[in-house]
Design goal:
heterodimer, A: 186 residues, alpha/beta, six-stranded parallel β-sheet, 8 helices, B: 150 residues, Rossmann fold, 6 helices, globular
Chain lengths: 186, 150
């Protein structure tokens, strides 16, 4: 399973959930797989997708927030696991697509193969799930429907040469369309 | 600030802002993050939910956050109010604050963030100015000088 496939499987389960995606290929994959106003493509600010997701989750307790994160991204902002773990937002699902490399910058290694991100999340107070195949990912997503968060799903993916198309929505428009949608349905 | 509509105060403590943060903790409106960038991320999520937010930090943390400010707050035009403690304002402040204290005004200017320095005489006016900006969906900064040594 490559990231683009895994992202599509998760994206299909979103319904009215808000999605926040990490910078790099992650956001491009989500954009190509399932573009919608409730997606916030974070194209800059490396590492902060889970923090933005936390802010949205705290202010919209009736809505689920799904963060599309990468191993490289969360390793840049490990403090976020602590903040999320301590606040225990019930509506936050943190999906980490882990390929053990910084794929967007040319495939340099991360240390996620040596230090397990799901163990760190568990220590911080997340409920943790692992999925290494499409079938397992689908069944995990089905299982967590009625589980209250914070949840971390570690999705083990393979390296890939596939590159999704660039996002051609201007950042202020990414913001405005999300704000309109999120706040109209409160 | 709370009375004029700020609902969230997210940041990293700074001794210059001690009384401000303590008051906010008492009122349960403060969320303490592990780093300033994280605080900006959380406050951005809150602002996207139309819940007006302030991010507080020392200027050391402000320097940590430059890329987040340019590639998130400025790029997406996120309405956020920065409250920054100005260490190194006094020439004889601790040595680790000297350089950043000196170049801080230039950095804020280069970033293109509109800012005001709070003063005893007109702090209320400066806060009103900032609130007006936030209501218009803009970002701006208020600076508190560290004019004492400990």
């Amino acid at each position: 399973m490559i990231r683009r496939e895994a992202v599509e499987i998760v994206a299909k389960t979103l319904k009215d959930d808000v999605a926040v995606s990490a910078n790099g290929y992650m956001s491009r994959d989500l954009y190509e797989a399932y573009d919608r106003p409730l997606n916030f493509y974070m194209i800059g600010s490396m590492g902060l997708a889970s923090s933005i997701g936390l802010g949205i989750a705290l202010k919209n307790p009736q809505r689920r927030v799904c963060v599309f994160d990468g191993d490289g991204n969360i390793l840049m902002n490990l403090g976020s696991l602590v903040t999320i773990g301590s606040l225990q937002p019930k509506n936050l699902i943190h999906v980490v697509f882990d390929n053990g490399i910084h794929e967007s910058t040319g495939g340099q290694p991360t240390n996620s193969t040596r230090v397990r991100i799901d163990s760190l999340a568990k220590a911080a107070g997340y409920k943790v799930f692992r999925a290494g195949s499409k079938v397992k990912l689908e069944s995990t997503l089905n299982k967590i429907k009625n589980v209250s968060g914070p949840i971390l799903v570690l999705v083990q993916i393979e390296k890939s040469k596939y590159v999704s198309k660039r996002i051609d929505v201007e950042p202020p428009l990414i913001k405005t369309r999300l704000m309109n949608k999120i706040n109209s349905q409160k | 600030m709370s009375e004029s509509g700020i609902e969230n105060f997210v940041g990293v403590p700074d001794s210059t802002l001690k009384h401000f943060v303590d008051q906010g903790l008492k009122k349960k409106v403060v969320l303490i993050a592990t780093r300033e960038e994280e605080a900006i991320g959380i406050a951005t999520g809150m602002s996207l939910s139309k819940s007006p937010s302030l991010v507080f930090m020392q200027n050391a943390g402000f320097a940590n956050s430059l890329s987040t400010i340019t590639s998130l707050v400025e790029l997406y035009e996120i309405p956020l109010l920065f409250l920054i403690g100005w260490r190194g304002y006094l020439k004889n402040d601790a040595p680790e604050h000297t350089k950043i204290g000196k170049i801080q005004p230039e950095i804020i200017k280069s970033l293109g963030i509109e800012s005001k320095i709070l003063s005893d005489a007109s702090w209320k006016k400066e806060c009103d100015w900032a609130m007006k900006k936030i209501r218009k969906g803009q970002f701006c900064a208020l600076i508190i000088r560290r004019d004492f040594l400990d």
